[in-house]
Amino acid sequence: MVLVLGLLTVVAGPPAGPAVADEAFVTNQGSDDLTVVDLDRMAPVATIAIGGKPAGIAVSRDGRRAYVTSPDSKTLTVIDAETRAIVKRIALTGGPLGLAVHPSGHPVYVADWYAHRLLVVDPEAGSVTAQVTVGESPSGIAPTPDGSLVLTADRDSNQISIIDAASLTVVAVVPVGTRPFGVTVSADGRRAYTANVGSNDVSVIDLAARREIGRVPVGNTPYAVALAGSRAFVTDQHADTITVFDTASLAPVATLAYGGEYPEGIAATPDGRRILVADWFSNTLSAIDAATLKTLGTAKVGDGPRAFGDFIRRTR
Amino acid sequence: MKHWTLTAVAAAAVALVAATADAHGPTRQKVTETIEINAPAAKVWAVIGNFQDMSWHPAVVKGEGKGGNDVNATRTLTLQGGAVIPEETLEKYDAAGMNYSYRITKEDVKVLPVTNYTSRIAVTEEGGKAKVEWRGAFYRGFPNNDPPPELSDEAAIKAIKGVYSSGLEALKKKVESGS
């Protein structure tokens, strides 16, 4: 069905008018590139060569820039998200992996997986302007929607660090489950969720109280969490499932054998109606209906998609 | 210099034996090997479907374990030459679907230069013949930047490809010869 629609659209040419579909920017670590997927058609529309085994991705809120970390080459690649052109490659040190863009578009935060620090990068100047010492093996990064705080999931310290974005000081450390990898902040900025790879659960953190207020069991080796409406969606890497739970009651909703294998990066569309999942082993991006929980379709991407970070590009 | 490197590698190896969830390399690797066997799938599954019996693999000289084919069953494999894979744990077992998944829960990168290793072996039937697919996902043996050659991504891929292809070829020979 998806294929047929895709072919028809190609034959008919690009749609007229200003409506352009939101897109997924999927980092393919094995094939060293990035696939751009049109989320209306669930079809790949561009491939951008990156190099250095790209893993982390962050698209700016205005949809103009995409940033990609390559831990092997220790670079941050800056992409013009609209033209798909590489604007620059910024040389870093250590093991750049997780990253996030400040809601204002500036600066970019990069976690150093090896040196236990958060790098603050000026993407225009192409330079590191500051470093913040955090816990061991910082992985996921998430700013609060108002841009006042930045969170790092410090995987090997079993904690998150909460950093004041203005002063760049760690204002709190919150113990969570074992080996937190992805961290996601709710749209209202009140809560954070970490996927705990080692304890097979999700920690729910109250950001005002700066403490863990709940722990939700999920499937084997969770990677990251996406939020849509009153639901959280968690990729269970080794179980090949998505665990869905209710964010108010923290009660389980469903465990989805959704069709992909080795699910990793996960994100909701801006309208909250669909969940996108990078299927690392099957080399696809899957779309799931956030309400009905049905798999809507898949798009072929490159080898070993990770899409670790905020990989959805808003275009409207 | 060489001595220092070897010492560092040995220290890293010791530290990794009991620490599967600790920091790992930046790039997870995947390997998939398949083979077609001229036999019904059920006949092939009868040979490989017991998690506690890896005797079909030419590199394995002894297997010891507990828990049978239940999820969380474990096995310890002794290889040709005496090296040991300390512990593998069954994560999924599907007799009807003829596949199982397992992970290395206690690793020794001197024996197999990988960390965070998971694997799945599956038999399907296509046109009266069996197709066996054995695949793995893993990180290299060295958890930090700039790995020594023997613990690099390339070394990890080569080692796992070798395990899979030699095992599948031996399996094919064993089943097709009727032994």
What does this structure look like?
- The complex is a heterodimer of chains A (316) and B (179).
- Chain A is mostly beta strands and 316 residues long.
- Chain A has a single domain (23-313), classed as Methylamine Dehydrogenase, Chain H (7 Propeller).
- Helix content of chain A is 3%, strand content 53%.
- Chain A has one helix at 2-12; strands spanning 23-28, 33-38, 43-49, 56-59, 65-70, 75-80, 86-91, 96-101, 108-112, 117-122, 127-133, 138-143, 149-154, 159-164, 169-175, 180-185, 191-196, 201-206, 211-217, 222-228, 231-236, 241-246, 252-256, 263-268, 274-279, 284-289, 295-300, 308-310, 312-313.
- In chain A, strands 7-6-5-4-28 form a five-stranded mixed beta sheet, with no helix packed on it.
- In chain A, a hairpin with a 6-residue loop joins strand 8 (96-101) and strand 9.
- Chain B is of the alpha+beta class and 179 residues long.
- Classes of the chains: A mainly beta (316), B alpha+beta (179).
- Chains A and B meet through loops of A and loops of B.
Please identify, by name, the CATH architecture of chain B: 2-Layer Sandwich
Overall, the morphology of chain B is: globular
In whole angstroms, how far apart are the ends of chain A? Answer: 25 Å
Report the largest inter-chain contact.
Answer: A-B, 26 and 16 residues
Question: Which runs of chain A of at least 5 residues are low in confidence (pLDDT < 50)?
Answer: 1-18
Helix- and strand-based class of chain A?
A: mainly beta
Give the uncertain stretches of chain B in residue-range form. 1-20
Structural class of chain B: alpha+beta
Could you tell me the CATH topology label of chain A.
Answer: Methylamine Dehydrogenase, Chain H
Total individual domains of chain A = 1
* CATH 2nd-level architecture of chain A: 7 Propeller
Q: What spatial order of strands do you see in the largest sheet of chain A?
A: 7-6-5-4-28
Counted beta strands of chain A: 29
Task: State the CATH class of chain B.
Answer: Alpha Beta
